[in-house]
Every structure is written in C-alpha cells, then in structure tokens.
Amino acid sequence: MNTAHAASEGIAIHLSAPVLGHFFGIPLTATLLTTWVMIALLLVFAIVAKRRLAMVPSKTQVAVELFVGGAFDYVADALEDRELAKRFFPLIMSIFVFIFALNVIALLPGVDALGMWKIEDGLSEFVPFLHSANTDLNIPIALALIAFFTVEVTGIAFLGVWKYGSKFINFASPLAFVIGIIELFSELARLVSFSFRLFGNIFAGKTLILIAIFFVPFILPVPILAFELFVGFIQAFIFAVLTLFFIKLAIAEPEHH
Amino acid sequence: MDIEAIKVLGMALAVGLGMIGPGIGIGILVSKALEAIGRNPEVSGRIQTNMFIGIAFTEALAIFAIVVGFIIRFG
Hints:
The complex is a heterodimer.
Chain A: E1 3-5, E2 12-14, E3 19-23, E4 26-29, H1 30-51, H2 59-79, H3 82-107, E5 115-120, E6 123-128, H4 138-159, H5 161-165, H6 174-215, H7 221-251
Antiparallel strand pairs in A: 1-2, 3-4, 5-6
Helix pairs in contact in A: 1-3, 2-3, 3-7, 4-6, 4-7, 6-7
Chain B: H1 3-39, H2 44-74
C-alpha cells in the first residue's frame, strides 16, 4: 500500500506483505507461507504429542495437560455448562494456540533473515520467506471472519432464526427498535475491532522493534522483545476470550422490553 | 495547503483526538481493577481477566479511530 521511511538510510516499513510470487494470479505472500508453516508445525506437534501420550506422564505432558485442563475449566466456567464447553473449547483453544504461535514465531531471530532477492521495476528488493503473519491485515481478518461466523451461526443454531433475529430487528416498541439497530451495528463493528486490534498491536510491535534495532542495536531491543512476547500472548488470549464471550452472548435468550 | 497535506493532518487529528477517550477509559479501568485487587487479592485472577476484556472493549474505540484515520489517508 505505502512505504514510510523513518530515516534517509531507510528502514522501510511496509504495510503490505512481501510477495514471493504468483500462483494462478493469486499473490503468494510471505505471511501466507508463514501461516502454512505454522499449521504444519502445529499438526506435527499434535501428532507427535498424541503418539507419546502415556498413562504415566512425562514432565512436558503434565505441563501441557495442566495448561489445556486449566483452559478448559476457564471455558466451562464462562459458559456455565461443561457440555457446551466441550463443543466450543476446540475452536477457542485453536484460535489461541494458532495466534500465539504465529506471534511467537515472528519474534524468533532469523525468521525475517531468510529470503531471496527479487528484481522489480529495475530495483532489486529483499523478500523474506517468512514474515510476522499478523502484520498482514488479511490474516487477522480471516481469523475475525471465522470468529464472527461461528458466533452468528451458534446464535441461530441455539435460538433459531426468528428469536436470534429479534435481538437485532425488533418492532415491539420504538425504543427496542433503536436498541436493536445499535446492536446490529456493534455486531458488525466486531469484525473491524477484532481484526484491527490484532493487526494494530502486532504491527506496532514489529515497527517498534525495527526502530529500536535501527537506533540502539544493543541491549534496548531485549526488553522490547520480551514485552512483545507478552503482547503476543495477551492478544491471542483476548482474541480467544472475546470469541468465547460473544458466543456466550449469542446463545443468551433475548431480553423482552 | 494541498489535499495530501490536509489528508495527513486529518489522519493525525482523527487518531490523536480519538485516542483521548479510550486513554482515559483504560486509565479508570485499570485503576479500579487495581483497587479491587488491593482490597480482595484472592480473586485477582478473575479481576485481571475481566480487566483485560474491559480493556479490549475500550481499546476497540481507539482502533476505530485508527481505522478512520486509514480511511482518510488511503481511502
């Protein structure tokens, strides 16, 4: 979209993702490749971890079990129903693990260093193979769409089209109508806030690290990296927990005014 | 002033002014949460989670400001 130069020597901050090539006219970006690599890594981890499951658990297994069990209890607590929690837990946990893993892998040194030189318009430009996935707005939007449609479909499945629709379009009284319309807009605004929250936080963090490394290459980037790790965790957590709470709101009975 | 300059100014104003409200809001939110934790440290875990969720909602307003800024700048 645009390029901003922070200094004349050029730290280039790109809003658009680096494009590796085209596949039937669809641009294949480094961020897309990163998500694929991450999906493959998570799959391999899941398969290996499943094979190694033992009745007498190893230390790693205990740690993972504690983590997953704690998360499940949290979801069951929020939904106040263990059966419901069993249904939604896989999705919510996947969202959390996927976003967190993407944010962590982006902070690893060397992720942006592997790449190739590409010649475009007579200028040779370095294109990394892997790039922080959430700095590409398309990926947060994709995740936000998944969360959004899950919430809406859940609401319709649990309450039925008419009852769920009456939360938004309600002719019972003028006040109810206005409230319904406001609800409808805030429902749609979630798409924006979901995606831009993740994108904005991760993109700002990436830019902050880049600028810190450019001006003070030693020591200063270390606490910033640690902070970005924390931000990556919090953003993944927020994304998953908000999905959970919106599901909870969607399956709640509409109030009658 | 040409249109580009006005666009840049508009973006800066939209984002800058839009950040004031959420900034105050998050300040109040965290201060109250910390007060609550100070008074009742046993439930600090739950207070923190609710605090983060509240922050996420408040932050959404700031995010809208940024989105509007982007629309002004690039739209």
